[in-house]
């Protein structure tokens, strides 16, 4: 039976609170997810000083820097996350948005790496991650085939296992832009596993992605879509995550292997329904 690898993307929906983060980890564990994922940034590398000094009202102050720093966990926070995930028996990993952040994450024994769609064209990061040799999920939002070609070339050049993730980088994504047939297109073109990282509202598109052969499924999760944050509106609340995981496991089972089989339970029905001839 196919088993979809389900990733609960906590991202920055913890809003800088380790208690909220632990609640989100619990939500993922209780739903039966395979892993939780975060995002790590060195904000002085990812953003310009001009941008960071701009006005932005947030719970942490009135500049972009205040907001970005308020959302970042430090080393002690990640140590607490690492210990808590081990206690809860769930894997965790993160997408680094700069080289320093990838070095930071290497302090922990994570099983996976992630290349975010925004980072797929940043070759120094791709090279660094590929050299680590960990199984890597590579999102393909905002890309051309040339971008994906180069990422695949780098990872195959380092013999680093990976899978692509079909992604549309709008938040939330309009269903009409989902283009789920890209899952099969990418699988055929690159001869690799292809997952789906969704940013839509609702669950139907994610169900369809799994039925169409996505080997992994990543969705943002939240304690409530009303909460502060740019990702909250495209995220799934706890009850929705329970429904998603339960349904995906049924779809995994129901998809089967495509081989026609004799089903014993059908035989008596066939005799009954065909008795007139």
How would you describe the overall organization of this protein?
The chain has 277 residues and is α/β, with parallel strands linked by helices. The chain has one domain (5-273): Alpha-Beta Barrel (TIM Barrel). It is 43% helix and 18% strand. It has helices spanning 18-31, 43-46, 49-52, 64-71, 75-88, 99-105, 123-132, 145-157, 182-190, 204-211, 238-255, 264-273, and strands at 5-11, 35-40, 55-58, 61-63, 91-96, 112-115, 135-139, 162-167, 194-198, 216-220. It has an 8-stranded parallel sheet. Strands 3-4 form a two-stranded antiparallel sheet. Helix 1 packs parallel to helix 5 (75-88), helix 1 runs parallel beside helix 11 and helix 7 (123-132) packs parallel to helix 8. The model has no long low-confidence stretch (mean pLDDT 97).
